[in-house]
Every structure is written in structure tokens, then in C-alpha cells.
Amino acid sequence: MAPIRFIHTADLHLGSPFTGISGLAAEQRKKFADTVYQAFDTLIDYAVREKPDFMLIAGDIYDGEDRTLRAQYKFQKGMERLNLAGIPVIISHGNHDHLGGGWARFELPGNVHVFDDQVASHSFTVSGNKVTVTGFSYGERHVKTAKILEFPQADESSDYHIGMLHGSMDGDASHAVYAPFKKEQLLSKNYHYWALGHIHLRQVLHEDPCIVYPGNIQGRHRKETGPKGFYDVRLENAGTSMEFIQTSAVCFDSLKISCSGILHMNELIDACIAEAEQYTSENNAVMAVLHLTDQDEHSAELLEGVPEAVLLEAIQEAIESSSAEAWISNIVVEDAYRENRVSAIGEKISATMSEWDLTDWKWVLKDLYQHPKASRYLDPLTNEAIEEIAADAIPKIHKAMRAGE
């Protein structure tokens, strides 16, 4: 068998909004709003330049079931570019962009094969090899059944058989259950590669054969951290090789600054600049949470009287004057040096807050988010936004309620 080469991508989420960027200037917010489309352009540019044998898109091309015109037009033009380059594309739709949604009709070019809501196989020839891809699209948003049970055994007449599945591994408590599967069920099909989608964290569940989540192509909030992209995959008799290709124009991540030995504020600011420049030289732009760690007596005293908002403004202004394309969303002062000074009432309050679920937080925040003036300046109160607020709240409680303050 001759080797084959393909791109495995998933979870494009074209049209997706960003959260946690309301504090940025209008120009910066526009930059973030366009990064999903920039990531998609990077994907298409790479494919046109490298000319793989085909491309697999394993679900959630669009962020919503009611696909925006801009997102559909952008995708249609990308598929036309791949068509002109002679690159076939096999796609499935996931829980976000399921076939039951409503949208204006766009005609995709002939190089695109779209799976319907029934598990089916699509075969074609690459360099004399018969390649079979088996998959399905979501017919509705919530597909809770184990669709893997409908996948056939590997086609013995095919040189390569690939499975496409947008779903979650059975028992993964960190994600909602969609088209659940067990790894052993995938392996039992004897496919050469499993192209998964749905989980935004890039991960390889198994090697030989490879079972792979490529993650999404662009982080959309600070829980989707690090570089995002897709895999350039090569299959051959000797095995599988994969290269991760970054598409994310902006990464959400954390920057950690050790405060040990810092005596003066200019040293701290310079350390923040250096860390931001190092990160962006390797990973493009970043929206970061700045963690100040390893405080000693001197650095703790230095930070004690400086409001975090003032410190954030000073550090951000300094970074903007550097070579780093970085924005600091907030600062977390990890003040373990003084943690023994947290008062008993402060501990009780933070313990209570730790037990709140999303419903409790929505009740606490409802007056602010229903305020006729304040609500205009706030991001939508999504579950992700609530989780960010909760993560920030307890450290601030500790700082504000130390014994003796």
C-alpha cells in the first residue's frame, strides 16, 4: 500500500462568540471576534499549500444550529478553494451544527461529501489505494445513543479504513454525554485511524491505531487554553505519523511570574514583560491570566498596598510598549506566604461559596446582570463566564478578609 496523507480537524465553531473580553478596547474586541475566521483561513491556506490527499472535518463546523450567513459564506468559500486545489473534503455535523437546525441554503462544491444522520461509508481512491471513511452527522442536538454500535467492521477490500465520530468517551464526567463510546469499541472495528471531534482539548487516546481528538482550531475563552490547531496525518504500512499545526491567532493561557527575590516594582513589571515576550515568540498572541507566585516577605510587602486594578493597568501598559502581543485579563496573586492570616469568617464565606452551583451564582449575580445600565457593558452570563467569576472570587475574598485587615 502506498502512504496516504490527510488533514484531521474538528470543532471549527465558525461564528462563535468570545467571552471575557468586554474590558478590551473596541479594536481589540474586533481582533478577538475575528480570530476563529483567521484560524479557518490558516487551515485552508495550509491545505492549499501542502496539498494533502483529503481533509476530514469531524463535526461542529458552525457554533450554532442556526448558522450565521457570515460563517456559512466563509466555509463555502474555503471549500471552493480546496476544490480548485483538488482536495476532497469529508465532513460530519455535530451537536452544535446538527442537521435539524435552520439556515439559509449554501451550495457546497463537488469535492465535499457530507454524512447524513445515518452511519454510512464513503469510499474513494488515493494513489491507487481504496480509502473508506465511515461516519455520520447529528440529526438533532442531543444524540445520546452509542452510535459506535452502528459502525461496521473494517472493509477488507479497502487499503485504509478511517472512522469519523463526533462524541465523548463513555464515563468522561468532565463532558456531557454525546454519542458515547468506549475505546475498546473503537479498537474492535480494526480501523486504521479514528478521527474524533467534540472534545476541545487536543489528545491522543490510543496509538496504533491512532484514536485522536485534534481539539478546536481557536480557543474562545480562558478555559480553552494553549495553542489550538489540527493534525497533518500520514498513514502507511509502517504506522501513523502526525504533526500538529497551530491555527490559533490568539491563545488563552496563564503566565506565571515568580516573585521570589523581587524588591522593587520595576523588577516585577520587567519580569512580566519578559514572560509575555517569551510566550508570544513561541505561540502567537495571548490573552493571559497573570499568576504572581512564590512570594517572600519582601515581595508580599511590595504588593500589599497596591490595588490589583492599578497593578494590572501598569503591567498592561508596559507590555503594550514591548514586542509582545499580549493582553492580561486579570491578575491572581497567589499569596501562600500570608494564607495563614485568612480570618475564620473569611474561610467560612469562601467554603460556602465553594459549594455554590451555577444556579446559586446566577441568583447572586442577577441584580447586576438585570441592571438597565450596567448590563450593557457586560458579556452574556454564560456558564463559562460564571465559572470564571467563581474562580476569581475566592482568592479575592481571602485577600480582603485576612485577619487584622
Tell me what the structure shows:
This protein has about 400 residues and is α/β, with parallel strands linked by helices. It folds into three domains: about 5-245, Purple Acid Phosphatase, chain A, domain 2; about 250-340, no CATH class; about 340-405, no CATH class. It is built from nine helices and 15 strands. It has helices at about 25-50, 70-85, 185-190, 265-285, 295-305, 310-320, 345-355, 360-370, 385-400; strands at about 5-10, 55-60, 90, 110-115, 120-125, 130-135, 160-165, 195, 205, 210-215, 230-235, 240-245, 250-260, 285-295, 325-335. A six-stranded mixed sheet has the order 4-3-2-1-11-12, covered by helices on one side. The radius of gyration is 24 Å and the shape is elongated. The model has no long low-confidence stretch (mean pLDDT about 90).
Briefly note the structural class of the backbone: alpha/beta
Strands, count: 15
Query: What is the tally of helical segments?
Result: 9
Low-pLDDT windows of residues: none
| CATH fold node name of the largest domain | Purple Acid Phosphatase, chain A, domain 2
**Looking at the structure, what is the overall shape?**
elongated
Order of helices and strands: EHEHEEEEEHEEEEEEHEHHEHHH
What is the mean predicted local confidence, pLDDT?
A: 88
Question: Fraction of residues in helices?
Answer: 25-40%
CATH superfamily of the largest domain: Metallo-dependent phosphatases
Rg is: 24 Å
